[in-house]
């Protein structure tokens, strides 16, 4: 650029000097200089005009005359234009590649604008969601997928978890829908065919339920005979077999508990997700659970119960009883003799909470995220010894999920644990003003 300024000066200076000389010679210095200035200005205006026309129509118009500074300006503009062309070509190639790979995906991908209108979709979306190239561009996705669960998901704005819905074209196909927000109000919708996965899940669930069901009768018979044998001890002393029979009874009891828990879990899994509107008197329920916990403890723990008697829940009583009693019995089983267990049923804003706190053995932090998995136990030996099945917290989690509730676990090894179940406002029902009831069961 500086070099070109020099070139511009090399043109302007000689002309100015010549103008001064001519002006002096004809004794008209001012008018000669004025004439030269106007001529220079007109030249520059002409170049600007040509440059402007060339910028607007680079293919048809001609560039400015390549003189002085204009040589540099023209070259710079040409280089920039070339760079932009290359960038555009690269972006087009990338876009084509992205479209090609998106079309190769077996999952449907749809781009939605801020108003939920469809901007673009891949080939799989045509088959899974029934999108049509001509008909559906700029229509809203809610018109194409008229499913109430999907619409609640789309409008709800909470896209942390995917949703399962039947495919709009075929009720026998199940889709897992996931929405990912990006950019300014845009959303990427992905739909995956999970029919086969669901079939496998049903096969697994049915298998577990059938096996558990089939095992129930033989176990009851074995248990009955073992009971009869141990009770007939007076007539024919069992001698050294006494210990063996007692072990067999213990193990049969354990198997019966596992079978009962497995059957309960498959019932929870196979029933409708929305649970009933039965009004559950949680305070009363907890009183009977605390009595059972006292029996389990055999008087070796201090058990406290603090409830808000007017606070009730819409739900299924026997399911809630299973969940709360599992938590209460765990607290007793994992707290050494002399320890305490405190249960609390209270309102937290418009939500309701059940918390149970013990000062028992506690849980190492790395185990906490996995505790609600089936058969996950921190210490298998201890769990078996205390009569555990490894399914208690899995049942708790299922029951709570069915009631729209979440389980929060806080624990410190050696100091104790606190399990809190929080129920959403729509499950809460208050029958009278707050009336706390405190019970300490020893
Ligand atoms: P289990 O029948 O073995 O108790 P659960 O599913 O009820 O199975 O619990 C899973 C594991 O979580 C238990 O094996 C135990 O290690 C741990 N756990 C549950 N509750 C407590 C508690 N209150 N204190 C310490 N550990 C607990």
Provide a descriptive summary of the structure in words.
With 442 residues, the protein is α+β, with helices and mostly antiparallel strands. It contains 13 helices and 14 strands. The strands form 3 sheets. A 6-stranded mixed sheet has the order 11-12-10-9-7-14, with helices on one face. It has a 5-stranded antiparallel sheet with strand order 2-1-5-4-3, with helices on both faces. The chain has a 3-stranded antiparallel sheet with strand order 6-8-13. The longest helix has 37 residues. It binds adenosine-5'-diphosphate. Adenosine-5'-diphosphate binds next to helix 11 and helix 13. Adenosine-5'-diphosphate (ADP) binds next to helix 11 and helix 13.
Topology, element by element:
Elements (H helix, E strand, L loop, with lengths): L1 H24 L3 H28 L12 H36 L3 E5 L5 E4 L1 H7 L3 H4 L4 H4 L3 H9 L6 E4 L7 E9 L3 E8 L1 H37 L9 H30 L7 E3 L1 H16 L4 E7 L2 E5 L1 H17 L6 E9 L2 E8 L21 H6 L6 H11 L3 E7 L3 E8 L4 E3 L5 E6 L1
Parallel strand pairs: 7-9
Antiparallel strand pairs: 1-2, 1-5, 3-4, 4-5, 6-8, 7-14, 8-13, 9-10, 10-12, 11-12
Helix pairs in contact: 1-2, 1-3, 8-9, 9-13, 10-11, 11-13
CATH architecture of the largest domain: 2-Layer Sandwich
Number of strands: 14
Which spans of ≥5 residues are poorly predicted at pLDDT below 50? Answer: none
Radius of gyration: 40 Å
Secondary-structure class: alpha+beta
Question: How would a crystallographer describe the biggest sheet?
Answer: 6 strands, mixed
The set of bound ligands, ions and cofactors reads: adenosine-5'-diphosphate
Order of helices and strands: HHHEEHHHHEEEHHEHEEHEEHHEEEE
Taken together, the total number of domains comes to 4
Instruction: Give the amount of beta strand, in percent.
Output: 15-25%
- Determine and state the CATH class of the largest domain: Alpha Beta
Question: How much helix, percentage-wise, in residues?
Answer: 40-55%
Outline, from the CA principal axes?
elongated
**CATH domain fold name of the largest domain:** Heat Shock Protein 90
């Amino acid at each position: 650029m500086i070099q070109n300024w020099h070139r511009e000066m090399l043109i302007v200076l000689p002309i100015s000097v010549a103008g001064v000389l001519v002006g002096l010679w004809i004794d008209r210095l001012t008018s000669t200089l004025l004439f030269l200035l106007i001529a220079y200005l007109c030249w520059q205006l002409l170049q600007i005009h040509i440059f402007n026309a060339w910028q607007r129509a680079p293919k048809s118009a001609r560039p400015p005359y390549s003189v002085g500074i204009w040589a540099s300006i023209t070259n710079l503009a040409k280089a920039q234009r070339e760079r932009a062309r290359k960038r555009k070509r690269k972006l087009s190639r990338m876009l084509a590649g992205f479209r090609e790979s998106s079309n190769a995906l077996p999952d449907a991908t749809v781009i939605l604008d801020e108003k939920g209108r469809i901007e673009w979709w891949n080939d799989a979306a045509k088959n899974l969601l029934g999108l049509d190239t001509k008909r559906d561009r700029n229509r809203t996705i809610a018109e194409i997928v008229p499913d109430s669960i999907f619409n609640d998901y789309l409008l709800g704005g909470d896209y942390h978890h995917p949703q399962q819905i039947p495919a709009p074209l075929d009720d026998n196909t199940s889709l897992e829908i996931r929405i990912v927000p990006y950019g300014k109000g845009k959303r990427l919708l992905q739909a995956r065919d999970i029919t086969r996965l669901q079939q496998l899940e049903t096969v697994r669930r049915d298998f577990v339920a059938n096996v558990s069901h089939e095992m129930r009768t033989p176990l009851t018979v074995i248990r009955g005979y073992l009971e009869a044998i141990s009770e007939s001890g007076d007539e024919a002393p069992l001698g050294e077999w006494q210990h063996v029979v007692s072990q067999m009874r213990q193990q049969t009891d354990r198997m019966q508990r596992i079978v009962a828990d497995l059957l309960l879990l498959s019932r929870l899994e196979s029933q409708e997700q929305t649970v009933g509107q039965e009004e559950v008197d949680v305070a009363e329920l907890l009183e009977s659970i605390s009595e059972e916990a006292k029996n389990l403890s055999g008087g070796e723990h201090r058990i406290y119960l603090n409830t808000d008697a007017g606070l009730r829940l819409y739900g299924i009583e026997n399911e809630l009883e299973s969940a709360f009693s599992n938590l209460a019995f765990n607290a007793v089983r994992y707290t050494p003799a002399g320890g305490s267990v405190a249960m609390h049923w209270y309102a937290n804003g418009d939500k309701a909470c059940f918390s149970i706190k013990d000062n028992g053995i506690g849980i190492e932090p790395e185990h906490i995220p996995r505790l609600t998995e089936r058969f996950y136990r921190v210490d298998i030996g201890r769990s078996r010894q205390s009569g555990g099945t490894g399914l208690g917290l899995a049942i708790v989690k299922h029951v709570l999920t069915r009631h729209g509730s979440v389980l929060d676990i806080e624990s410190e090894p050696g100091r104790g644990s606190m399990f809190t179940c929080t129920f959403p406002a729509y499950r809460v029902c208050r029958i009278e003003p707050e009336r706390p009831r405190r019970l300490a069961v020893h």
